[in-house]
Amino acid sequence: MKVLLTGSAGQLGQALIASVPQGVELIATTRRDLDLADDKACRDAVRSHRPDWVLNAGAYTAVDQAESQPELAHAVNALAPQAFAESLRSEGGHLFQISTDFVFNGSQGFPYQPDQERNPLGVYGYTKAAGEAAVQEFLGDEERSFILRTSWVISPVGKNFVRTMLRLHREKTQFGVVADQVGCTSSTLNLAQACWRAMELAGQKSLPTVMHWSDAGAASWYDVAVSVGRMGLELGLLDSAAAVQPIVTSAYPTKAQRPTYSLLDCASTREALDLEAEHWQQALWNVLKRLQNAAQSHCG
Ligand SMILES: NC(=O)c1ccc[n+]([C@@H]2O[C@H](COP(=O)([O-])OP(=O)(O)OC[C@H]3O[C@@H](n4cnc5c(N)ncnc54)[C@H](OP(=O)(O)O)[C@@H]3O)[C@@H](O)[C@H]2O)c1
Predict the structure, then answer these.
(1) In a mutational test of the pocket of ligand 1, which residue from 5, 11, 16 has the highest number of ligand atoms less than 8 Å from its CB?
(2) Which of 92, 120, 155, 253 is in the most buried spot, having the most CB atoms within 10 Å?
(3) What is the DSSP letter of 20?
């Protein structure tokens, strides 16, 4: 199975590379090899590599910055998946599109089902929703394309909330974190496994064409920040943990509005992929454990 991966240098991209299954011929691309803002380059990549799958993990993910760069965000998040879908339709091959809880506005107050209507809040969410719609329009039939939505991605590498919290715990004695936004983390260690499993199973049985994947349970950003401090201490990643204060969203204004409750109901996806749920605290522990191992091997 030949897989053309985008966003290889990202959090998920790196986890996908680290867990590539046997029998997969991986063409891992970064921004340097394949600019997702260039739809012609996306079409050319499909034509020249003729992959069985495009695994589109690359995206414009700077949620606040997207508010002032809507064209670029649209090109990367909507026009690139459209270009992949259109060219795979004529060349043959499947598309695995990674998407986000931000396609929902977060106001319903209970977990989102995969078949619910998209209703995003900001530019990032709109562009990712447009990408989903294009994938469904141009490659939606015969299970040629799959959309997997995820949320609050965390990883031992890259720019993410866990690494930011570790830094804040080191630098400060106290800080505030938003406690009125609820969702769930998605460790790339688990998310990558779900992606590979889905692509492997797609050739063997019918799968839902829209899937949801996150770790299990529910948390606020505040809960995650407190847990990073406690676990960071236990693992020796921190000498001391700061006091974290719960704050309301309005006390931490951002350019882009975020969904207040963006839990994804992952039950049908877990069942289809036959994968166990891992509680977010265990998933967080595993991410921090990777950071501990990396720190120890760096010292050694
Ligand atoms: N991060 C989250 O919390 C989150 C939540 C829900 C869903 N998702 C989705 O999950 C997927 C993976 O996200 P992630 O967390 O791994 O994001 P990430 O760490 O920001 O990685 C995204 C990758 O896309 C690449 N990229 C951006 N613009 C590009 C362009 N014009 N051409 C080529 N590559 C480009 C980036 O390249 P550079 O390294 O060169 O910048 C980066 O390597 C995305 O579809 C995202 O929308 C993420």
Answers:
(1) 11
(2) 155
(3) P
Residue 227, token pair as written in the block:
């847990």
Report how far residue 241's alpha carbon sits from residue 49's, in angstroms, rounded to the nearest whole number.
49
Active site residue 222: no
Give CA–CA dist 32/41, Å, rounded.
Answer: 11
3-state secondary structure of 215: coil
Question: Angle between the 280-299 and 188-202 helix axes, to the nearest 10 degrees?
Answer: 110
**Alpha helix (H) ranges present in the chain?**
11-18, 39-49, 70-74, 80-91, 123-139, 161-171, 188-202, 221-234, 267-273, 280-299
pTM of the model: 0.97
By most ligand atoms within 8 Å of CB, the mutation choice from 11, 42, 61, 189 for ligand 1 is 61
Query: What tens digit of pLDDT does each residue of 68-113 get?
Result: 999 999 999 999 999 999 999 999 999 999 999 999 999 999 999 9
Tokens of 109: 């107050």
Residues flanking ligand 1, CB < 6 Å: 7, 9-13, 31, 34-37, 57-61, 76, 98, 100-101, 128, 150-153, 158
Are 116 and 167 in contact by the 8 Å Cβ rule? The answer is no
Beta-bridge partner residues of 153? 186
